[in-house]
Design a protein that fits this description.
mainly alpha, MgtE N-terminal fold, CBS-domain, Tetracycline Repressor, domain 2, three-stranded mixed β-sheet, about 5% strand, elongated
Length: about 450
């Protein structure tokens, strides 16, 4: 759906809610309970503050928490102030700890402390612990609401223990087994527990080979593991093997979207990653993009200086100018394609560190093949169009060599940056394209000077 289509749908939903708000409290409560929190959140921009507050007073606290979490962060503070201290506290306490931490992390420090001060002490303590971890680490995205039992229980005892805590956990498909020191020793599924004999010890049911992540593990690596093993959740431990929390698949989906967005933005040479703020912050957003774009302008001047250096060659055979655009654009496009393939492979884990030579060699062969085909096509085109055999040779050979080099650079540069421990998406398309503009012009006019004007 296009942006305009989505906005129109949200306006229509907002108008429907406005009409619903005229109903009695009983009808309003019933009808709002039938709507999904995400759908309510999408309609909120079309409503005023008073209408938003009224809606959140008539939905269950758990649903209200879902609505607030899905709202633009600029709406959250005034909305919670309008709801009042008691209602706000109840809603925040219903929000999963990891969601509450993510929400508060994006609010001003003063508001963060104020909201932490109105919720229950135990809940606030858990949220503060999550806030202490890096936002893009396993600790920063985990939830402390998980199902765990002691390893010396039987299946029947485990079921009784889970009945007492099930309402407080975010996901109960996996049950983790810990010892007296809260160290992770095993895991079993709810299916394993239900199908086991009541008196069977958990040590016979559980799997002791548990895949987990350290609390400091980068969220992108966590997403790779969850995708690799098709987990619904993955446990988070510290250096002493103590179970601290779990990361659920819904948070992993958010991570994948965030990382993919970041890579796409960086590939386009855009460091303005706050893509959700389309409606404001023009000066701030522009100043983030300007340094990169200004740097590329100087790169373009270097390409122009190459042409100026060979001005005598161009004056002697002006038909060379007809093919400048092709020689500049074609290799840049080839480099960007190779760059996208390699960056995706590095991001998804399909390309490991030990695979880099193989990947570069594969892309180099692809580049040579592409260069030969495109160069042959343009050589024939140039000869037929202008009737100059040497011109066809220069254009075709220049394009073939440039595209081969472009594909090689498009695969080598992101791998090099990756080996240095930097995000490979920083080897962005505009940078590669500008580099190839300069390189292809040098190759083109050098060959023209060598073969045509010798």
């Amino acid at each position: 759906m296009t942006g305009d289509g989505k906005e129109r749908r949200n306006i229509e939903a907002g108008e429907s809610l406005e009409r619903l708000l005229q109903s009695s409290s009983e009808v309003l409560h019933t009808k709002l309970g039938e709507l999904h929190p995400s759908d309510l959140a999408e309609a909120f921009p079309s409503l005023n503050l008073a209408q938003r507050v009224k809606i959140l007073r008539h939905v269950e606290p758990e649903d209200a928490a879902g609505v607030i979490y899905n709202l633009d962060r600029n709406m959250v503070v005034p909305l919670l102030e309008g709801l009042g201290r008691q209602r706000s506290a109840k809603i925040l306490e219903e929000m999963p700890d990891d969601d509450a931490a993510n929400l508060l992390r994006e609010l001003p420090q003063g508001e963060k402390e104020r909201l932490l001060g109105i919720i229950a002490a135990a809940e606030a303590r858990e949220i503060r612990m999550l806030l202490a971890y890096g936002a893009e680490t396993a600790g920063g995205i985990m939830t402390t609401e998980y199902a765990a039992v002691q390893k010396d229980l039987t299946a029947r005892q485990a079921i009784e223990a889970l009945r007492a805590t099930a309402r407080e956990v975010e996901i109960i498909y996996y049950i983790y087994v810990v010892n007296q020191k809260n160290q992770l020793t095993g895991v079993f599924s709810l299916r394993d527990l239900i199908t086991a004999e009541p008196g069977e010890p958990l040590e016979k049911i559980m799997q002791t080979r548990v895949i987990s992540v350290n609390v400091r593990t980068d969220q992108e690596e966590v997403a790779r593991l969850v995708a690799k093993y098709d987990f619904l959740a993955i446990p988070v431990i510290n250096d002493d093997q103590e179970l601290l929390g779990i990361i659920t698949v819904d948070d992993i989906l958010d991570v994948i979207e965030e990382e993919a967005t970041e890579d796409i933005m960086l590939l386009s040479g855009n460091t303005d990653l706050e893509v959700e703020e389309f409606e404001g912050g023009i000066w701030r957003r522009a100043t983030r993009r300007l340094p990169w774009l200004v740097g590329l302008l100087f790169g373009g001047l270097m390409a122009g200086n190459v042409i100026n250096f060979f001005s005598g060659t161009l004056e002697s055979l002006t038909v060379l100018a007809f093919f400048i655009h092709i020689l500049a654009g074609g290799p840049g496009n080839a480099a960007t394609q190779s760059l996208a393939v390699v960056v995706r492979g590095l991001a998804t884990g399909e390309v490991e560190r030990e695979d880099v030579i193989r990947v570069i060699w594969r892309e180099a062969r692809v580049g040579i093949f592409i260069g030969l085909v495109c160069g042959s096509v343009m050589a024939v085109t140039a000869y037929v169009w202008q009737g100059i055999p040497l011109l066809g040779l220069v254009v075709g050979l220049s394009l073939a060599v440039s595209m081969s080099i472009a594909t090689l650079l498009g695969s080598f540069i992101p791998v090099l940056i990756y080996r240095l421990g930097i995000d490979p998406a920083l080897a962005s398309g505009p940078f590669i394209t500008t580099l190839m503009d300069i390189t292809s012009m040098v190759i083109y006019f050098s060959l023209a000077s060598l073969f045509i004007l010798k």
